Amino acid sequence: MITNKEPLRGRPIVKAFFEKRTFSVQYVVADPETKRCAIIDPVLDFDPKSGATATHSADELLAHIDQEGYSLEWILDTHPHADHFSAAGYLKDKTGVPTAIGEKVTEVQKLWKGLYNLPDSFPTDGSQWDRIFADGERFTIGKMDVEVMFTPGHTLASVAYIVGDAAFIHDTIFMPDGGTARADFPGGSAKALWNSIQRIMALPDNTRLFTGHDYMPGGREPRWESTVAQQRAENTHLTKAKTEGEFVALREKRDRELPMPKLILHSLQVNIRGGRLPEPENNSKRYLKIPLDALDAPWDE
Ligand SMILES: N[C@@H](CCC(=O)N[C@@H](CS)C(=O)NCC(=O)O)C(=O)O
Ligand SMILES: [Fe+2]
């Protein structure tokens, strides 16, 4: 773990790209010395009303990389997203750069393979990515060290990427006024989320924390960066719920009231394929499959 090993070298330049349809934050994380960079959590645009997909968001990341003279070394996802398609597959095809995610993605693949009744031939070994990371594994972006921290709860495969003094903590905690992520998707767990949040809060106080979404509470402008110290002092859920029991109660109560993300059933079948759309049928068109009555709805909303 972080504390037992050599300190992580590097102070990345972080550029965030806010995707306003799904309130997602995508990142380009660059080593100022070598100009090598990684993309974290890229979005493939999807309009559910028309069924149209597009690569505007992903292309914007590539344009930034080009403009800054960076060279792309990794395409990373923190978790199989339940509210948007990952652009990892598109970016891999376009650049040839390796993709990666946490190793427990194989469990998510197994779970959703069942829910979608995918054919036996659908691989659930993570082979859709070039690399799947275990807890505590390290790699580099240029000369910066990255440590993978397993942070389940929101999904059972979620990981955070600690890059030098910055941590990409996806859907664990949001900005202090946004609280914490939900933990009620299949494979989610409020108790696991609490433990993951404790691991993040044990990072050095001045660690720069970059979140995966910002839902702009109260209609304020989108924001994505905080610190451990700031979260400890201000996070609206963590200042209310001081123990695991209190947190689990708060989280589960709120989750019972939240409708499922609009795109959960659309997204998972793409994201368990490494951000690739389903194979075309014999008319060369691609189709999504929507399982009925697989998830619960809060009808009394
Ligand atoms: N209204 C959004 C909700 C998306 C959602 O559920 N987001 C997750 C992260 S993927 C979350 O933790 N939300 C917390 C909250 O809405 O309070 C949608 O339909 O896409
Ligand atoms: Fe998420």
Automatic annotation (TrEMBL):
Gene3D superfamilies: Ribonuclease Z/Hydroxyacylglutathione hydrolase-like. This is Beta-lactamase hydrolase-like protein. The lineage of its organism: Bacteria, Pseudomonadati, Pseudomonadota, Alphaproteobacteria, Hyphomicrobiales. SMART domains: Lactamase_B. Pfam families: Lactamase_B. SUPFAM superfamilies: Metallo-hydrolase/oxidoreductase. InterPro entries: Metallo-B-lactamas, Mito_Persulfide_Diox, POD-like_MBL-fold, RibonucZ/Hydroxyglut_hydro. Keywords: Metal-binding. The keyword Coiled coil does not apply. It comes from Methylobacterium isbiliense. Residues 23-213 form the Metallo-beta-lactamase domain. The keyword Magnesium does not apply.
